[in-house]
Amino acid sequence: MKKGILYFLFLSCIQVSFAQNNLLWQGYFSYNEIKSLAQSPTAVFAASENALFTKDLSTNFIKTTNTVDGLSGQTISVIYHSVKSNKTIIGYENGLIIVINDADGTVINVVDILNKELPAAIKKINHFLEFNGIIYISCDFGIVQFNLATMQFGDSYFIGDNGAEIKINQTALFDGFIYAVTVNGIRRANITNQNLIDYRQWTTIAAGSWSHIASFGQDLYAINSAANVSRFNAGSSSFVGIIQLPQPVLDSRATASSFIVTTSNTVSIYNSQMALIRQIDASQIAGISPAFMAATIINQTVFIGTKENGLITTSLSFSTTFDNITPSGPARNNIFGITTSSKELWAVYGDYASNYNPYPLDSYGISKFDEKGWFEIPYEKLFGAKSLAKITVNPNNEKQVYASSFFSGLLKIENEEPAILYNQTNSGLESLTFGGPTYIDIRINGTAFDKAGNLWVTNSLVNNGLKVLKTNGQWQSFATSTIVKDVLSSNFNTIAIDKNGTKWLASSQNGVIAFNESTNKFKNITEGTDTGNLPFRNVRAVAVDTRNQLWIGTTKGLRILSNVNSYQSDDQMTTNPIIIVEDDLPQELLFEQFITDITVDGANNKWIGTADSGLFLVSPNGQETKYHFTVNNSPLPSNTINDISINSITGEVFIATNKGLVSFKGTATAANDNLNNVIVYPNPVRPEYEGAVKITGLIDRANIKITDIGGNLVYETTSEGGTIEWDTTAFGKYKVASGVYMIFVSAQDGVETKVKKVMIIR
């Protein structure tokens, strides 16, 4: 017999401390894919992939909760709200449980099932049943008790044949018994039995594969995998079929007066006599074609969670009116490409595999975020452009945006309206040819504007892989086949353009390719000590910093070209690793890391995204790792970083992952041209404030000195970019006392100065 008694201490429940009152992070999540619903008499709770929202029906206030608030970036499988304890419990596919105390917002991670010595594939949480303060957790391996008051686990029930693991889809209480529906029959046991860890105490009363069970009124109902709804016959201890549904059931639940069954196309609502009183078909909802996931009823309102269209409401009485109450957000959480302008952020969702295969092709729209919220350009307006992987804003005209399709060409958007799709018929863009004469496949990826306003474009798997759309509307092509060894297997990624107008192209097979039209020469940096010294030829990211260094991210590490001017002087340019010292041992920065993106902020720091190790922020020379953000120490929803973009005005760093978009509000603002707009905030600094004082509006390399009113120096630094922070200590030793502090700012040459004051109140 397999015993699974879990007497875990409260210490096994780890509170997510980094998420509480964290002003540096912001979450931008999609709430469209509803995984599960829960309810109280006055609120509905909707869980999406890795976030949730709650609507208070008395105030109509909607509250969102995501990784910034302490949730995990893993996929949610079920949600439950305990009215008695005022706690919301979230179950995940990997076995994690999160408990939110709705009274004070405390978020607790419960990792006992996640860490349990069982195969990872059978830890999914499927259902929560509450009885006498105990939550019975249905998992893919069995049933686990959890005490909501003490936050401690009790027994685990392995009730498969001979005590083996068995997938429990749902449990229900009826007439003194606990019933469990499984993939191998319905089993029950007396709920008062003190020895339920013994599988022999559980009796199989129905064969077959069952998905749902619930007590409703005076009866017990179960649904099998063939979508047959059955009523329990207590006299014969068997289930008798009463309703045959045309589709598999995704969710069923009972309220005080209704039994609700949800399939992908219908929500069927039955009264206490199991008479159908309302059926809602997906076809009744105009403008969309929703796939239903779950439904519930509060008072006389039906709430329907959908797979892609969020949470929809309608009246229980027959109505043709449907309202969407989903919080504003991006269309999806798997955002592949982003870009920022001074006031906007754009996002696209098309992607390709690590080998640049865009199949299966994606048909998603484009999202924009500004001070008014999220705006969506639906796919139907995109002229059929599929797999949009990158997006670029014209720096000279922020109303003009270009989205790169890794299958259909280049989409131009003006004033939020798609204007034209450039393809092989109306531009210099080319389709790959090895698919045959009728196969059209135009793989556009990296794009970048030069100082003159021309748009440079990479076109993969063709002879002329570099294109430019000039300001006069004319296209010009350049033959990358002169340097690319195998055109039919070498894909391009990002482009960086330096102060000399040299274009640096990241390629999958040929390292970095450099080109300048003034010389009309292509040059190559690839692996090998004599051919560029890259760790690997597969380059995913290139970025030019403010010191004219080229940072190169490959699938196996990082390299630096010390000066981009070497394109003009050297026949063979050579890169170098950054060597750092850790634990008294020299080692290579980001050794063997799969680097997905590199972005330079206003202080010349480098934000480096990786495929599976999170996000790094390193100093201008790479010798100091200022931050290494992962899912374990930050609100990042995933360690897979797809793209990074920085708003140079606000310093907000946007991080797109495969499980959601978040931002970090650091000091990464661009330097100003003068000191006319120096601002100190907060001012005054009040006793309850625990953060740093920010001084913004600085010029690059400005000298900042802070003194007390008596002229005693307490802090001094030199700015890199437009913002610095002071932690209100005297050179990091102790907190300064209450009083007025003088801030003296001067340019490097001393010609321009500015004096500010800040009040500290302890």
From TrEMBL:
Pfam family, one: PorZ_N_b_propeller
Record keyword Chloroplast present: no
Sequence ranges assigned to domain PorZ N-terminal beta-propeller in this UniProt record: 44-203
Signal sequence coordinates: 1-19
Keywords: Signal
Gene3D superfamilies: YVTN repeat-like/Quinoprotein amine dehydrogenase (2.130.10.10)
InterPro entries on file: PorZ_N, Secre_tail, WD40/YVTN_repeat-like_dom_sf
Protein name: PorZ N-terminal beta-propeller domain-containing protein
Organism listed in the record: Flavobacterium micromati
